Amino acid sequence: MSGQDIRETYLEAGEFFAKVVDQVDIDGWEVPALGEWCARDLTGHTYRSFTTILSYSAKPGDKVDLERPVDYFLTAFEGLADPKQVAERGRAAGLEIIDDPRMMVRGFAMYVKNKLEELADDHIMATPVGGMRLIDYLPTRTFELIIHTMDLAKAVGVDDQPPEKGMAATLEILGQIALYRGRASDLVFGITGRGGLSDGFSVLS
User: Fold this and answer.
1) What is the pLDDT of residues 108-118, one digit of tens each?
2) Binning pLDDT at 50, 70 and 90, where does residue 60 land?
């Protein structure tokens, strides 16, 4: 993908998220959604795919530590992805948008779109796991937007399909994670009908 394609894919994923949030019923924010999260918590966690771009770009990194989107996840799994901490960050973000989730999501989607117009592809983002070029970090946020918007849509009963380019980017990262975590054979056998995947199978855990 070109840099422009990566940007457009991210923005399309953000629009997918905003469209699903727009359709959540006023009484639907407390329904169970994912693990410990209700729909509001999950929405808050997903909306961090906007806010982290704004915050990480504000303090540019000194050097590139992670070259590829998959490197972000492989590094994060080593410590940043502690389930309790992730759950708490989601709840905290849910409280940030409690008054008007739709307005907050739409507003920050626009803030990020405008911010991306100011940033070069090679702008170094100071992420919690190391410096990354903007254009390498964006696919990690597309990944989060696609997967968690699908979670949200399922939880609140919204029938909306993710954009194809965003889904393709997500599947690419999932395949790479499976490869580097030694789960690629299981994944290939399972999705081609050559062997059932075990209950709870995930390349993320």
Assistant:
1) 999 999 999 99
2) confident
pLDDT digits (tens, 9 = 90+) for 141-157: 999 999 999 999 999 99
For the chain, give the longest Cα–Cα distance. Answer: 49
Q: Domain span at residue 96? A: 3-165
Q: What's the token pair of residue 197?
A: 């995947």
H/E segment holding residue 34:
strand 32-34
Task: With respect to residue 182, please indicate whether it lies within any of the assigned structural domains.
Answer: no
Q: Tell me, yes or no, whether 40 lies in a domain.
A: yes
The answer to the question of residue 127 being in a domain is yes
d(CA 10, CA 38) in angstroms, rounded, equals: 25
Give me the CATH number covering residue 113: 1.20.120.450
Our count of domains for the chain comes to 1
The answer to the question of residue 198 being in a domain is: no
> What is the number of other CB atoms lying within 10 angstroms of the CB of residue 29?
19
* Spatial separation of the C-alpha atoms in residues 116 and 10, rounded to whole Å: 11
Of the chain, the end-to-end C-alpha distance in Å amounts to 28
Q: Kind and range of the H or E element at 124?
A: strand 124-127
Give the phi and the psi of residue 42 in degrees, each rounded to 5: -65, -40
d(CA 187, CA 137): 25
For residue 132, what are the contacts with CB-CB under 8 A and spacing of at least 6? 61, 64, 65, 66, 72, 124, 125
Hey, what's the torsion of the CAs at 111, 117, 119, 121, to 10 degrees? 120
